[in-house]
Write a structure and sequence with these properties.
352 residues, alpha+beta, four-stranded mixed beta sheet, six-stranded mixed beta sheet
């Protein structure tokens, strides 16, 4: 089996699909047959000779849909660039928008009009290396006890998570950015719907609408939005939208806030005891829909994979890639931090 045929089968095995002349059930078996040609059962030296071809196949499969899979629902707000190893990317930041708005609302006396210029500046996003490792009993893979689709899935998940965390780290750090207007952030010990609506209003002013991206813990703390709030007398409860009540009944969370869609960020745990989370549960980000994409992501070169043999003879596969992230225009998107939510974020993921 040729190298390109193996790559094609690996991609289909990772996505649960099949090329022509194969059924879905045949793909993994055919790929395993091709892999055994590079590493016949029991011939470790043959594997050592061919292992970089095997790693190339795995990386090709894992990188196929990396930007879309890693960014998920945030993809429409992200500008993604792929560059060759050693190259840099320069983005153009538009300036003068506020000056233009002033021009549109002010006219000089006697027909003398103010003039303005939409300037711009360029900036560079410099990637840095991120990566991880997985310990896999390679012979179990060759014996068919573990499918190659699962192996590729593990590698793909690790690559996706590294990009996802980099974006979340950049968003979270922006709350303390020096140029962030005070009106664009809220830090409170509980959720306040009126304060959230003010943030939504700001973000909407810079796009067609706005979208709230929040962790499941933050959305749960939001609860249904009261159309008529509970009065001070407490004689009767607030009035809530039936759609909110249905959403909570069906999913446990509301999915819209006063016309603004809520997107739940993918949350998970970094430890086997389920105590540390990938994302800061206290954070929500309100981004404008349409216009300039505020998140810039650069990936330099291809992902790199290599191996080491542990003392128990298991094999550890290590992967890394170069990723750079920048978040722009602090004046047109907002952050809400609810410090009343228990902080379970894994600090090691956000320390540089």
């Amino acid at each position: 089996m040729t190298h390109s045929e193996l790559i094609t089968l690996a991609k289909h095995a990772a996505h649960g699909t099949a090329p022509a002349n194969y059924s879905v059930n045949q793909v993994n078996e055919a790929f395993m047959d091709g892999l055994r040609e590079l590493c016949p059962r029991g011939e470790f030296n043959t594997f050592m000779k061919n292992r970089y071809d095997i790693y190339d196949i795995i990386i090709e499969a894992a990188e196929q849909d990396l930007p879309r899979n890693a960014l998920g629902e945030m993809a429409p707000f992200v500008e993604f660039r792929q560059v060759e190893q050693g190259n840099t990317v320069r983005f153009r930041k538009k300036l003068g928008r506020n000056r233009a708005k002033k021009f549109l609302t002010q006219v000089g006396l006697s027909g003398v009009y103010e003039t303005f210029r939409l300037d711009h500046s360029d900036f560079e996003v410099k990637p840095h290396a991120v990566g991880g490792a997985a310990t896999i009993d390679f012979e179990r893979v060759l014996d068919g006890a573990e499918s190659m689709a699962e192996v590729v899935g593990i590698i793909t998940e690790g690559l996706n998570d590294s990009v996802y965390i980099e974006v979340q780290r950049a968003l979270r750090a922006a709350i303390n950015a020096a140029n962030r207007p005070a009106a664009n952030k809220v830090v409170a010990t509980e959720f306040d719907s009126d304060k959230m609506f003010k943030l939504v209003t700001i973000a909407r002013a810079y796009g067609d609408n706005a979208t709230i991206f929040a962790t499941p813990e933050f959305i749960q703390a939001m609860g249904p939005d009261a159309i008529v709030p509970v009065p001070a007398s407490g004689n009767y409860g607030g009035v809530y939208a039936p759609q909110d009540i249905d959403a909570i009944h069906n999913t446990g969370y509301i999915n819209i806030f006063r016309g603004t869609p809520i997107v739940q960020l993918r949350q998970s745990y970094t430890d086997e005891n389920n105590n540390k989370t990938y994302l800061d549960p206290q954070m929500a980000y309100i981004l404008p829909s349409g216009g300039e994409k505020p998140i810039k992501v650069v990936r330099e070169g291809k992902s790199v994979m290599w191996d080491r043999t542990n003392e128990d003879q298991s094999m550890e596969w290590r992967v890394y890639q170069k990723i750079g992230v920048a978040v722009l225009y602090n004046h047109n998107w907002c952050i809400y931090q609810n410090t009343g939510i228990e902080q379970t974020m894994d600090d090691t993921l956000y320390s540089i």
